[in-house]
């Protein structure tokens, strides 16, 4: 099977638990280091799937790599090469598919609950018996649901937390978190947390409470989601 290409936009926002799931399934993967100016591939044909991680920039920024990434996402969707987006990656997917990315009503940083949409698509990705779960957030913007896609997650402060379109899944929240990733984000974003400006910005101390238990519970959700996405990979 061709490798999964994982696009990294910041050194502190790697694939995390997704890499564990890919390794466990025997799926080869490689990093496309956008943060190190690695060029964007012109075609998805050499990949079994595309993954776009988070980052501190905005999809609306004038950055040279954004237009080719949007073009690559559109090509992958047209060819049924599964695409998976986390946070910034989900915003890139929305924008590529005709959606709009704009400022959210509040900035969310820390742990918070998301609710599953009441539709068959959400149940297929997250499970029949699950009504919602606690996940990790770090975002100031939000996306609209592209035409043809199905909303799958929402939260109290961000209506559009995820959408699915066939084998493609976009998540505003971070289900890829590991303890190391959480600590890394808190370290690099400590000043942003200290500035506050939103009731939904948690302190580093609050984010770190019961960290192992929270991450373990999140991995149970990620196992289901990533297994379904992996099952759709192209040969």
Please list the strands of the largest sheet in the order they lie side by side: 2-1-3-4-9-8-7-5-6
Number of DSSP helices? 8
Largest sheet, in brief, is: 9 strands, mixed
Structural class: alpha/beta
Can you tell me the overall shape?
Answer: globular
What pattern of helices and strands is seen along the backbone?
EHEEHEHEHEEEEHHHH
Strand content: 25-35%
Identify the quaternary structure here.
single chain
Name of the CATH superfamily = Class I glutamine amidotransferase (GATase) domain
Unreliable residue stretches: none
Question: What is the average per-residue confidence, as pLDDT, rounded to a whole number?
Answer: 96
Q: Might you state the CATH topology name?
A: Rossmann fold
Named at the architecture level, the CATH assignment is 3-Layer(aba) Sandwich
CATH class annotation: Alpha Beta
Secondary structure elements and their pairing?
Layout lengths: L3 E5 L8 H8 L4 E5 L15 E4 L13 H13 L4 E4 L1 H9 L4 E16 L3 H7 L5 E12 L6 E6 L2 E8 L2 E4 L7 H10 L1 H6 L8 H5 L2 H21 L4
Helix pairs in contact: 1-8, 2-3
């Amino acid at each position: 099977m061709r490798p999964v290409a994982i696009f990294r936009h910041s050194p502190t926002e790697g694939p995390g638990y997704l890499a564990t799931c890919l390794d466990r399934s025997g799926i080869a993967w490689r990093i496309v280091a956008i943060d190190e100016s690695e060029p964007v591939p012109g075609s998805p044909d050499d990949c079994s799937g595309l993954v776009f991680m988070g980052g501190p920039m905005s999809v609306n920024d004038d950055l040279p790599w954004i237009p080719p990434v949007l073009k690559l996402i559109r090509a992958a969707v047209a060819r049924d090469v599964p695409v998976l987006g986390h946070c910034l990656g989900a915003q890139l997917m929305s924008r590529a598919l005709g959606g709009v990315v704009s400022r959210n009503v509040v900035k969310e940083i820390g742990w918070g609950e998301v609710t599953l949409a009441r539709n068959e698509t959400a149940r297929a990705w997250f499970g029949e018996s699950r009504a919602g779960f606690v996940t990790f957030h770090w975002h100031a913007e939000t996306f609209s649901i592209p035409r043809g896609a199905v909303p799958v997650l929402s939260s109290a402060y961000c209506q559009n937390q995820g959408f699915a379109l066939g084998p493609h899944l976009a998540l505003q929240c971070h289900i890829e978190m590991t303890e190391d990733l959480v600590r890394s984000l808190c370290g690099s974003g400590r000043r942003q947390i200290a500035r506050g400006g939103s009731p939904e910005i948690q302190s580093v101390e609050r984010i770190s409470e019961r960290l192992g238990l929270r991450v373990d519970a999140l991995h149970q959700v990620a196992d289901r989601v990533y297994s379904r996405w992996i099952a759709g990979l192209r040969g």
